Amino acid sequence: MARRYSYDLRIKLFKAVDDGLSIVKACKIFNYKS
């Protein structure tokens, strides 16, 4: 149970980091164009 919870937490963290990087990339592209 605890192991499964940490696994879910890790996936959520990974997705959050991935989303954050996507936002950073979008901001860089946007700033580059403008």
Automatic annotation (TrEMBL):
Origin superkingdom: Bacteria
Name under which the protein is recorded: IS630 family transposase
Organism: Orientia tsutsugamushi str. Gilliam
